[in-house]
């Protein structure tokens, strides 16, 4: 029943999602049927065959027909479930030959995407509607799991190995993806937004990165702080985290791991964003991904402007 499916399951974003939901609802109703059947027989038996004074329990022997039925019928049902499941698994495992390929790199605690033309993105994924897309995935550290809820695809991402999934997006708009394998402190923040675009919107994103030129730079930086995963390692209130806090850093001296001290001016912040290993702050490991080629100039300007607004230490 469609109303029940929509009540207990997320929206469907691909044809494969519809197949998964149909299979899932079949299992739900099958379970309901056998629960009611078994519970009903149990309740009936308790009432019908309850003990009465003077009753003598008869001598029961086996029933060939009954034993045959409760062996063959469950076997047939399980074979249907097995064949149905294998068919769906094979469809999910083998992408069509014309699928666009996107490289996915998982790292604590961000998602990095690279497109065939060299375009890169962090925690933001854009695909074209009604065009299949294949993801070739690897991890730089621990096991992660790429889970796109509305598409009903989910696969582990392993260090030193490639894994693949694919789907054909059919619903324009925003969808959510996340890491479904616990990967440490920032696991719950390791998510992002999948944008299914029409052809025009997709080409515009490739050209501009989706940055609205009318947004003030500091406001843009605040938005990027969340959308690009900066918040998973850098706080804005001075509290400790995986990376240095942004609060009050601008214009102040910063001690580096090599013993030098530098002033956190615009150039220092820009370099730290684009080439994270250039100057490592004392007391921190360099776990930040390189954003060179990922962020456009206006995005870098926005982050610098936002950091400048975060007050004094």
Task: Give the gist of this structure.
This protein has 313 residues and is an alpha+beta fold.
Account of the protein in words:
It is built from 7 helices and 12 strands. The longest helix has 34 residues, at 15-48. The model has no long low-confidence stretch (mean pLDDT 88). Strands 3-2-1-5-8 form a 5-stranded mixed β-sheet, with no helix packed on it. It has a 5-stranded mixed β-sheet with strand order 4-10-9-6-7. It is elongated, with a radius of gyration of 28 Å. It has 3 domains: 2-41 and 63-93, no CATH class; 100-208, Immunoglobulin-like; 217-308, Cytochrome Bc1 Complex, Chain D, domain 2 (Orthogonal Bundle). By secondary structure, the protein is α+β, with helices and mostly antiparallel strands.
Considering the chains and any ligands shown, give keywords for the structure.
36% helix, Immunoglobulin-like, Cytochrome Bc1 Complex, Chain D, domain 2, 5-stranded mixed beta sheet, 7 helices, 20% strand, 12 strands, 313 residues, alpha+beta, 3 domains
């Amino acid at each position: 029943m469609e109303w029940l499916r929509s009540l207990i399951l997320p929206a469907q974003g691909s044809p494969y999602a519809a197949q998964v939901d149909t299979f899932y609802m079949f299992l739900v109703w099958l379970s309901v049927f056998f629960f009611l059947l078994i519970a009903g027989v149990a309740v009936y038996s308790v009432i019908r065959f309850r003990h009465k004074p003077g009753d003598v329990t008869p001598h029961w022997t086996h029933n060939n027909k009954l034993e045959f039925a409760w062996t063959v019928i469950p076997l047939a049902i399980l074979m249907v479930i097995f064949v149905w499941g294998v068919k769906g698994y094979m469809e999910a495992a083998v992408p069509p030959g014309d699928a666009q390929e996107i490289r996915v790199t998982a790292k604590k605690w961000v998602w990095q995407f690279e497109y065939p033309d060299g375009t890169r993105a962090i925690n933001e994924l854009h695909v074209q509607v009604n065009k299949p897309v294949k993801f070739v995935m690897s991890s730089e550290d621990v096991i992660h799991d790429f889970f796109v809820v509305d598409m009903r695809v989910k696969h582990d991402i392993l260090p030193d190995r490639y894994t693949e999934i694919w789907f054909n997006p059919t619903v324009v708009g925003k969808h959510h993806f996340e890491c479904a394998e616990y990967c440490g402190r920032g696991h719950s923040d390791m998510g992002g937004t999948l944008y299914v675009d029409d052809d025009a919107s997709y080409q515009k994103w490739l050209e501009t990165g989706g940055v609205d030129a009318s947004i003030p730079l500091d406001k843009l930086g605040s938005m990027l702080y969340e959308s690009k995963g900066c918040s998973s390692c850098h706080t804005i209130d001075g509290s400790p985290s995986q990376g240095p806090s942004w609060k009050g850093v601008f214009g102040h001296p910063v001690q580096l791991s090599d013993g030098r001290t530098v002033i956190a001016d615009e150039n220092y912040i820009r370099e730290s964003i684009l080439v994270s290993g250039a100057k490592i702050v004392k007391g921190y490991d360099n776990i930040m991904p390189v954003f060179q080629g990922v962020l456009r100039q206006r995005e870098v300007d926005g982050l610098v402007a936002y950091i400048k607004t975060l007050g004094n230490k």
